[in-house]
């Protein structure tokens, strides 16, 4: 028996075998599913398989003799007195959180930014000649993402044995305490802070005894325009400075104790330490060229000037295998 079913929108009719359809529905299945093959049982069996955990011991990765293991910096050997390069994470009214290598976070109090900034805050608290408008807040001096060198001041143990509170300092007097006038060179990258605003420039505190640094206004124009939103520098503002020492002999003799510096972004980026015989001249944030001696999965073994050392993989911008022995970077 055939029946014609009409469809809208002008489609052709489709014929269906209604009698055959009824007969197929009335027929019972020849085989019945066992209770174990029901849907619920199948789901339970799949769940048991997914929860099954192998008791076989996992194979440990073997380290061949030509491989070298580098410890993550500051993860195990953190101690007071270290100077490291950190990244500003969060800025608050009275402290700054700084990320350090090895997934370590330290606290930088605003009293440890610089001596001049701390002194200026004390004058405001005493309601002396300086007004609060003359001092910039910490979030105006430091922005998240900025790279700054820090000195590990102390480590406070918490109730939890695995938790430690690391107190940092950004004071140039502590960062550059190992430097002297004799160790300075032309084009050397140093970290300082503005100590005062002068008529034709700024006085910069480098924390080096017997030395005063002066930043002419023309040497600060590019930084003010590109990095400081056109605003003039203020007291306590941290700066990366490049030395402009034309006659080192005069400076070492004490005839020239005023050092001219520049904060031009191009000069800061291109500054490279090329010659030194004192390991204390290496400061966090300095640029230098090293000769690669060997390549490992965990980093590189390099020679920097006359000193051997290694670079951890977390401090590289690409995988160590992409470097080659004898390459200079």
TrEMBL record:
One of its GO terms (cellular component) is small-subunit processome. One of its GO terms (molecular function) is RNA binding. InterPro entries: NA-bd_OB-fold, Rrp5, S1_domain. Residues 1-63 are annotated as: Disordered. GO terms for biological process: rRNA processing. It comes from the Eukaryota. Residues 81-171 form the S1 motif domain. Residues 24-44 have a biased composition (Basic and acidic residues). SUPFAM superfamilies: Nucleic acid-binding proteins. PROSITE patterns: S1 (PS50126). This is S1 motif domain-containing protein. It comes from Biomphalaria glabrata. The gene is 106064401.
């Amino acid at each position: 028996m055939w029946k014609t079913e009409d469809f809208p929108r002008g489609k052709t009719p489709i014929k269906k075998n209604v009698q055959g359809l009824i007969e197929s529905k009335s027929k019972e299945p020849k085989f019945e599913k066992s209770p174990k093959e029901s849907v619920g049982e199948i789901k339970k069996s799949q769940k048991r398989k997914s929860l099954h955990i192998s008791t076989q011991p996992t194979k440990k990765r073997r380290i061949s003799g030509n491989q070298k293991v580098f410890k993550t910096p500051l993860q195990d050997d953190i101690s007071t007195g270290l100077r490291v390069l950190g990244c500003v994470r969060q800025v608050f009214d009275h402290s700054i959180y700084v990320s350090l290598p090895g997934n370590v976070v330290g606290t930088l109090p605003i009293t440890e930014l610089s001596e001049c900034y701390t002194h200026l805050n004390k004058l405001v608290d005493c309601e002396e000649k300086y007004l609060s408008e003359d001092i910039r807040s910490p979030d105006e001096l430091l922005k998240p993402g900025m790279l700054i060198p820090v000195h590990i001041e102390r480590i406070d143990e918490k109730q939890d044995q695995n938790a430690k509170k690391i107190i940092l300092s950004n004071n140039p007097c502590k960062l550059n305490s190992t430097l002297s006038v004799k160790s300075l060179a032309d084009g050397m990258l140093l970290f300082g802070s503005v100590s005062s605003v002068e008529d034709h420039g700024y006085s910069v505190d480098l924390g080096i005894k017997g030395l005063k640094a002066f930043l002419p206004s023309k040497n600060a124009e590019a930084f003010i325009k590109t990095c400081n939103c056109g605003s003039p520098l203020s007291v306590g503002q941290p700066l990366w400075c490049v030395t402009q020492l034309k006659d080192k002999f005069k400076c070492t003799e004490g005839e020239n104790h005023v050092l001219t510096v520049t904060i031009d972004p191009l000069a800061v980026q291109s500054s490279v330490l090329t010659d030194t015989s004192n390991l204390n001249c290496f400061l966090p944030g300095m640029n230098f060229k090293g000769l690669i001696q060997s390549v490992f999965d965990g980093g590189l073994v390099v020679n920097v000037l006359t000193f051997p050392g290694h670079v951890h993989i977390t401090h590289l911008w690409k995988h160590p295998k992409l470097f080659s022995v004898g390459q200079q970077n």
